């Protein structure tokens, strides 16, 4: 028999609040910190409430979610710009894990699902398994919004924007990849290329002037380099636009490249909605890990009672876009944590008898 579960959520491990009463209801729990604002919901198949009564959800009866046993959905925005390569998602733990035999098979399965996964689950201090959010999420949407003029210089203290409030969450139907505005997040460290991304016409004007004033049929070395940058920029835009086809496999394959992840920056204008949902963990009638090929683990035998924590966090030692130096220890998570500061997190733990 599966144990009764308790669920908590928040913007850090130390500030999480119980949301057990919201599980499977579709009611969002708000998230707010100096670097992130949004909402989170959780669905767990076979979940029972504090009285031991099952609490079902229509989410698990949708044809496109057949076989799914849990879902963690988040909608929000980063109030400070971060490279998509430095926004990670996965599991973190506060003490060593009691790993079962066959762990190598589990890790091979996880790497098959997500080739960008990095981990140290055998750590003798704080185990972890993290991947870039853009390459690991099975379902994700992105929308670029316009910000009110009065928030341009003080975005961290601004209220939730009207555009974000009008975006339905949770969505009435299952989330499918939709990223028509993703190309607008493209950045480049080159000043010339950056001017292209901002829509400046100075590059094209300069190029035309150079071509018209040249007595040679060949482009000058400078204008040729500029032309190559323009072509590369157009290719990057086309690559991101090609992802907007409702096919998450295209997005995940594209962002398997760290170079491509570094070219995308998410900030206050970017509304991101994700659905992290899978079916290889069952919660009822017993708690078990089930892998292809019939391999199964009774998780109760190995669960030592510490919370299973899903975390969206910053890469350790990385900088917010535009920062001149690394974050201080207070903002970059606890100094001995292998991960950086937390944007949001949700934890599942065994409920006490009096919960």
From TrEMBL:
InterPro entries: Duc1. Pfam families: Duc1. It comes from the Eukaryota. Residues 148-167 have a biased composition (Polar residues). Transmembrane segments: none annotated. Residues 4-318 form the Domain of unknown function at the cortex domain. Coiled coil: none annotated. This is Domain of unknown function at the cortex 1 domain-containing protein. The lineage of its organism: Eukaryota, Fungi, Dikarya, Basidiomycota, Agaricomycotina.
């Amino acid at each position: 028999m599966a144990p009764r579960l308790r669920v908590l959520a928040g913007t850090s491990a130390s500030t999480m609040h119980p949301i057990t009463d919201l599980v499977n209801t579709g009611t969002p729990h708000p998230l707010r910190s100096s670097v992130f604002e949004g909402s989170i919901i959780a669905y767990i198949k076979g979940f029972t409430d504090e009285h031991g009564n099952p609490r079902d959800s229509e989410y698990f009866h949708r044809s496109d979610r057949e076989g799914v046993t849990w879902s963690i959905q988040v909608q929000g925005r980063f109030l400070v710009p971060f490279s998509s390569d430095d926004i990670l998602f996965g599991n973190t733990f506060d003490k060593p894990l009691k790993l079962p035999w066959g762990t190598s098979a589990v890790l091979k399965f996880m790497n098959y699902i997500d080739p960008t996964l990095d981990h140290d689950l055998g750590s003798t201090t704080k185990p972890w398994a993290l991947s870039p959010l853009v390459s690991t999420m099975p379902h994700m949407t992105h929308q670029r919004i316009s910000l009110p003029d009065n928030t341009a210089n003080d975005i961290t203290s601004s209220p939730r924007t009207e555009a974000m409030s009008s975006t339905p969450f949770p969505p009435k139907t299952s989330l499918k990849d939709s990223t028509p505005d993703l190309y607008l997040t493209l950045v480049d460290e080159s000043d010339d290329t950056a001017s292209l991304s901002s829509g400046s016409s100075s590059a094209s004007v300069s190029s035309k002037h150079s071509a018209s004033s040249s007595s040679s049929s060949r482009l000058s070395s400078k204008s040729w380099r500029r032309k190559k940058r323009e072509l590369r920029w157009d290719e990057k835009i086309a690559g991101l636009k090609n992802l907007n086809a409702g096919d998450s496999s295209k997005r995940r394959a594209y962002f398997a490249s760290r170079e491509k992840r570094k070219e995308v920056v998410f900030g206050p204008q970017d509304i991101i909605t994700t659905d992290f949902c899978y079916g290889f963990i069952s919660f009822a009638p017993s708690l078990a890990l089930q892998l292809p090929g019939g391999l199964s683990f009774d998780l109760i035998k190995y669960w030592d009672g510490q919370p299973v924590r899903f975390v969206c966090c910053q890469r350790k030692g990385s900088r917010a876009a535009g920062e001149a130096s690394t974050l201080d220890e207070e903002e970059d998570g606890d100094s001995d944590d292998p991960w950086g500061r937390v944007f949001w997190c949700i934890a599942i733990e065994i409920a006490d008898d009096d919960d």
